[in-house]
Amino acid sequence: MRLFSLNHLIIPLLIGVLIPLPTSAAALSVQPDQVKAGLFFNGETVTITGQRAMGQPLLLLVIGPQRNQQIAPLGKHNGIWLEEDAHTLPHAPQFLAVANSQLLAELVTLFSDSLTTAGLNSILEYLPLTGRANRDAAPTDKPNWHHAYASLLEQRSLLLTEIALDDDPVSGAFSTKVRLPSNAPPGHYQVVALTRADGQPLVVTTGFLLTKSGVVSRLALAALNQPVVYGISALLFALLVGWVIGVLLNRR
Q1: What is the CATH number of domain 15-212?
Q2: What is the average per-residue pLDDT within 78-93?
């Protein structure tokens, strides 16, 4: 009868440490997972880190709160610019950021089925990929509402399409930093990573919460729950500030 030797246990353990097995699963995390916007909120940077299978493509999306958004073109009537008939974009993102390991057009084609299954295919309408495609298409009188809304988001720093991705295709580790501006809307933000594992598309999701705090939170609740009182208070406060400034200037 042969006795069990420690070599039978130690050697396999050393091999497992020195030669890591291929990673087929994907992981995703974000820090901080809760952002508080107070009176002097000047924006926040969130750090997203993850792990995917070695050498696999990656499409990373950060999607802010979504709501029905109305957008209307301006038309000149009798020398005055006025809003014309408005168009409603259902579930439009209030914030959108994208990072990619290769050309966005290639990743969209690769993950088209996964995006549709996850209900994210409409999000791509706001990315530059769609805008370029529409500009190259035949002229049409129909307005490109998605592109117009994306332009508004970009002007307000709420659409980020050139996020640097610290990517190691060999190990599969990746990280990036997303800067939320001071005007970032409160609510739940989705963080979605699309990649591949074992030859199949893989979607991994996480998220973080941006909440208003302190005086900002109280003002927001007052404007929502008591709009009349809030409006009168805002008017009285403006009159008070104007009166104080006038008194100070008259003393000089």
Answers
A1: 2.60.40.1930
A2: 83
